[in-house]
Amino acid sequence: EAQVTQNPRYLITVTGKKLTVTCSQNMNHEYMSWYRQDPGLGLRQIYYSMNVEVTDKGDVPEGYKVSRKEKRNFPLILESPSPNQTSLYFCASSPGTSGRARQETQYFGPGTRLLVL
Amino acid sequence: GNSVTQMEGPVTLSEEAFLTINCTYTATGYPSLFWYVQYPGEGLQLLLKATKADDKGSNKGFEATYRKETTSFHLEKGSVQVSDSAVYFCALGGTSYGKLTFGQGTILTVHP
């Protein structure tokens, strides 16, 4: 089954304790992205990756890191989490076909709900 | 920059009522427009999309028409069901690397 998986689904942590949220897709997609969802704000892009070893900042990258060492995986790293990073996080992927990226459907993972105390 | 504005929610309807959720956008160039739906406890999934002006996207009884002259992409359904209860997001795809710009989301609740 074609899908985007995320782990963990729920996480409670304390300020300053490093954490990683994993994301994996089995559709051989070039493009992957992380979003955070906050009430009244919709989803905002944190980081994106156009291919292996190619990553760039989205709209709200402060406090986050990413890496893309393999095509299928795109982990999100919070080196020193703070309470303002409490949110619902979504990973997404799309084929990344050259010249058609703006038309492509993005496929979302189930979400990771993070609470930072 | 690009932006998307959705009507304020939440929206509460009775089963079989007519649904409209308004969406307007600001963008440069020729964006694609999307409606994504989020059912309780799940991730977002594509509901419908339109990639150029005057295109109509449709799926599961939902429709939306890409209106460049009014910069709008309103979502409609003629007869909603309880199973349509979800959060609906209007989104714009306007850059070469496929970033989506989302509206704030509209919560729809349908009562029997």
| Number of helices in the DSSP assignment of chain B | 0
% residues in beta strands of chain B: over 45%
Ranges of chain B with pLDDT <50 over ≥5 residues?
A: none
End-to-end Cα distance of chain B = 41 Å
Class from secondary-structure proportions of chain A: mainly beta
Shape of chain B: globular
From the alpha-carbon coordinates, what is the Rg of chain A to the nearest angstrom? 14 Å
Shape of chain A: globular
Helix proportion of residues of chain A, in percent?
under 10%
User: Most extensive interface: pair and counts?
Assistant: A-B, 29 and 26 residues
Please give the number of β-strands of chain A. Answer: 11
Rg of chain B (C-alpha, Å)? 13 Å
Largest sheet of chain B: 6 strands, mixed
> Biggest sheet of chain A: strands, sense, closure?
7 strands, mixed
Textual characterization of the structure:
- The complex is a heterodimer of chains A (117) and B (112).
- Chain A has 117 residues and is mostly beta strands.
- In chain A, the strands form 2 sheets. In chain A, strands 2, 4, 5, 6, 9, 10 and 11 form a 7-stranded mixed β-sheet that branches. In chain A, strands 1-3-8-7 form a 4-stranded antiparallel β-sheet, with no helix packed on it.
- Chain A is globular and about 40 Å long.
- The N and C termini of chain A lie far apart (36 Å).
- By secondary structure, chain B is an all-beta fold.
- Chain B is 0% helix and 51% strand.
- Chain B has no helices and 12 strands.
- In chain B, the strands form 3 sheets. In chain B, strands 2, 5, 6, 10, 11 and 12 form a 6-stranded mixed β-sheet that branches. In chain B, strands 3-9-8-7 form a 4-stranded antiparallel β-sheet, with no helix packed on it. In chain B, strands 1-4 form a two-stranded antiparallel sheet.
- In chain B, strand 5 and strand 6 form a beta hairpin.
- The mean pLDDT of chain B is 93.
- Classes of the chains: A mainly beta (117), B mainly beta (112).
- Chains A and B meet through strand 4, strand 5 and strand 9 of A and strand 5 and strand 6 of B.
